[in-house]
Design a protein that fits this description.
GTP Cyclohydrolase I, domain 2; five-stranded mixed beta sheet; two-stranded antiparallel sheet; 7 helices
Length: 210
Amino acid sequence: MSEYDYDDNPTADVNDNKFDRIAIEKSIRSILSAIGEDPEREGLVKTPERIYRMYGELFSGYSQDPEALVNNAIFTVQYDEMVLVRDIEFYSMCEHHMLPFVGRAHVAYIPNGKVLGLSKIPRIVDMYARRLQVQERMTRQIADFLRDLLHPQGVAVVIEAMHLCSTMRGVKKHSSKMTTSAMHGAFRANLATRQEFLDNISRASAPLHV
């Protein structure tokens, strides 16, 4: 049997992982020992290395360059109605307990002569999701980034998520969801514009599950 799990690629993303491999693997071994496990037993001997590789993916947002991510995909277009990308799935890690929270982001803006390439909005969501986060800050970061990048007439972001820190521990409320929002420009100042956005994202979509 391979020393790696079926979904582990021993060479994947190692060169892109900027984290301190020695420190991470040493820390994971210490944690395993501290909870009474044997870091040298068969099922755990490669766990520190797996976690190092996993962190390179889960926390890749720290090393992403926003300018490279956008890659000049800003275009001059005469369009001044709402642009909405809804149901953007994301996975992030709560900074309080280092447990996942999983959800959807809905992102809208009203152009002011410039539009952003469609694929860039989910990439922006991922850039902020792939780091230790709290949902409130992540929501604001996405909205602020788009405001500063495009200088649009308005930006709106709503995020809905389920947090494992409150489903598998603590209060253990398995169906609870958290919703956060951030509004700039026309979405904050104009009730009709804000309501149009909220009506659009409230239309039926599949229930959110972890």
